[in-house]
Amino acid sequence: MTTTPSADPSPAAGPVTAPNARPGAADGVSAHRGAAHPGAAGPGVAHPGVARSKAKLPTGVKLAIDFGPLLVFFLAYRFSDIFVATTACMIATAVALAVAYALTRHLPVMLLVTGAVVMIFGGLTIYLHDDTFFKMKPTIIYGLFGIALAVGLLFGKYLLSHVFEFAIRLDAEGWRKLTVRWCLFFFAMAILNELVWRNVPQARWVDFKFFGLPTLTFLFAMAQMPLMQRHTVEDEGDTPA
Q: What pTM, to 2 d.p., does this model score?
């Protein structure tokens, strides 16, 4: 299973919008907690995730869902071969999807896309007895995510605002810059995976998939912290009157 940003990247249709804030009857507090904060890019831009009703996964459970199938694949490969490991990864992915749905009654788009690619390319790997398909899986997943973010940008949609909906609130310029960076990162990772699996032995690619891809993703995510701090906006409804 390909690692993805740990804040549950699940791009939806586009950024959340809300009517302009209206002063309250007595204290002037915004009647809509999702309304635009002064200093944001423009009026009516909601802070993503403010009025969401979707349940959040506990951190430990989320980590198990995100990294469990990858760990299962790595361990199965160490004790068997790529085909057994692929089968184990597919089973673990199905379990992860079932657990995520049972706990939240919805499936994040990125988790759903990743699961679908695992099942399709894992199935082809086993059916055709050709590990090329499973090696290409990270390329396809990263490529799809990069394309989705790029298309969103073309239409003025910052899909990452839904990926990090419970974690951070940024102004519009912050979401735009962060989306551009993650878009380029996903395309770079797709190219990198192609270069690695085509030029190194199978065992080295498995090590790269288990250690290299998550490490690079984590380091890139950490490198975005200064950008996010510069563009963070606070929810007006959470500040004292």
A: 0.71
Give the Cα separation of 23 and 239 in Å (integer): 15
Nearest-CA neighbor of 16 among 3, 33, 4, 29?
Answer: 33
How many angstroms separate the CA atoms of 161 and 15, rounded?
Answer: 6
CA torsion through residues 38, 43, 48, 53, sign: positive
Which token pair is 142? 């990263």
For 90, how many CA atoms within 13 A lie in the half-sphere containing its CB? 19
Q: Rounded to an integer, what distance in angstroms lies between the CA atom of residue 170 and that of residue 220?
A: 18
Q: Is 198 helix (H, G, I), strand (E, B) or coil?
A: helix
Q: What pLDDT band is residue 10 in, cutting at 50, 70 and 90?
A: very low
Which residue, among 44, 6, 3, 2, has the nearest Cα to 167 in the 3D structure? 6
Q: Is 122 exposed, middle or buried (0-12, 13-18, 19+ CB in 10 A)?
A: buried
Dihedral over alpha carbons 188, 224, 215, 15 (to 10 degrees): -70
